[in-house]
Design goal:
2% strand, single chain, 195 residues, globular, Fumarate Reductase Cytochrome B subunit, mainly alpha, 73% helix
Length: 195
């Protein structure tokens, strides 16, 4: 007599899946921040849309800081669960990966903080979260506006360089996701043509 073993399905709310979901939501958020920031910095000051774009940019920046906090807590939970069972193999590849990811997390924190510094130096009480005015993290100081602007600019572009390194290091994952996306798009296109 054969006994059937129950099929163990992975939990849909597992910490790893939460971490991956946060990864992609934050990726899109940082893409919006980078493209939007580059675009709005080129706009003339007289343009009426410039102010709301800056407010939206700051709101998404605040959102990424909240998501980053959640992501770090989730990462600690995943790491604790993984590494209490078995320590990693401390290879050159592991150290390189750790250094790259640590750098990414540092930049995910530094770029918005530099943005808050720039905004608060420029004008008091001008960082809001979708209309909710946040308290200043830094004192208003017109002498520091250019320092804040330069910090935010250069840290953002350095962060972008590390993101590109991350994408190159994960080229197998990028290719697999690209294949999934194109197959999905082809399937949707084929089904819309058939109907």
């Amino acid at each position: 007599m054969t006994t059937l073993k129950p099929v163990v399905k992975p939990r849909f709310n597992s910490a790893f899946k939460q971490l991956m979901s946060l990864h992609w939501v934050m990726s899109v958020s940082y893409l919006v921040l980078f493209i939007g920031g580059t675009f709005m910095a080129q706009l003339p000051r007289e343009l009426l849309i410039r102010g709301p774009l800056y407010d939206f940019h700051k709101s998404v920046g605040v959102l990424t800081m909240a998501l980053l906090t959640l992501r770090i807590l989730t990462l600690l939970r995943v790491g604790w669960k993984k590494y209490t069972k078995r320590l990693p193999k401390f290879t050159w590849e592991w150290y390189k990966n750790l250094a790259l990811h640590t750098s990414l997390y540092v930049f995910m924190w530094l770029v918005p903080i530099a943005g808050f510094f720039f905004s608060n130096s420029f004008k008091s009480n001008n960082v809001n979260f979708f209309g909710i005015v946040l308290p200043d993290a830094f004192p208003q100081n017109s002498a520091m506006v250019e320092v804040g602007r330069s910090l935010h600019f250069w840290l953002a572009y350095t962060f972008l360089a590390f993101v590109i390194l991350h994408i190159l290091a994960q080229k197998k994952v990028v290719r697999a996701n690209w294949r999934r996306l194109t197959n999905f798009a082809r399937g949707k296109l084929a089904s819309s043509v058939d109907s």
